[in-house]
Amino acid sequence: MPLPARAEVARHLERYREWERLMLASPDNRQVRGTFESAGYTLCALMGKRCAREAADAAELYLHTHRARAARTSPATPADG
Question: Does residue 3 surpass a pLDDT of 80?
């Protein structure tokens, strides 16, 4: 399964983490919990996972791997001099 664009993954992971923090701060708020679960569902669909925690971990790994690969393949910056 091809993965979505890195920016899309980053945007949905950030949204999921924001709602996770809000849900943990207000666990009895049904609206917050519902939006958090919706964000988790979207991340699951995006990453091809069944569990929001697994989807978040997969998204973080995908973004980290992409950054590491980009750092290895980017041309060296010429030294000032």
Answer: no
